[in-house]
Amino acid sequence: MSEKLKCCPFCGKKSDFDEWKQTKIFEKIAFRVLCVNIDCPVQPATDWFNTKEEAIEAWNRRANE
């Protein structure tokens, strides 16, 4: 993975991955990126994606770019 996560667009603090696993019937893993600052007024997160790369692309997209 070559692309770095941008900071939260609302508070400017660190962002990180969240991983979800479903293993009851078959193993399914999904990823999202979210702001990890508990004091962030918005606490944004992306939708769930099949790969980390898709989650990074969604998180790093900014309206003014």
Task: Outline the structure in words.
By secondary structure, the protein is an alpha+beta fold. The protein has 1 helix and 2 strands; from the N terminus they run ββα. A two-stranded antiparallel sheet has the order 1-2. The chain has one domain. Helix content is 14%, strand content 25%. The longest helix is centred in the last third of the chain and has 9 residues, at 52-60. The chain has one helix at 52-60, and strands spanning 15-22, 28-35.
Give a short synopsis of this structure.
This protein has about 60 residues and is α+β, with helices and mostly antiparallel strands. It has one helix at about 50-60; strands at about 15-20, 30-35.
Structural key phrases:
2 strands, alpha+beta, 1 helix, globular, 65 residues, 14% helix, two-stranded antiparallel ribbon, single chain
Provide the succession of SSEs: EEH
Low-confidence stretches: none
Q: Which value, in Å, is the CA radius of gyration?
A: 13 Å
Label the overall shape.
globular
Residue fraction in strands: 15-25%
- Termini separation: 22 Å
Mean pLDDT: 91
- Bin the helical content: 10-25%
- How many separate structural domains? 1
Largest sheet: 2 strands, antiparallel
Helix-strand category:
alpha+beta
**Quaternary status of these chains?**
single chain
SS elements, strand count: 2
Number of helices: 1
Strand order in the sheet with the most strands: 1-2
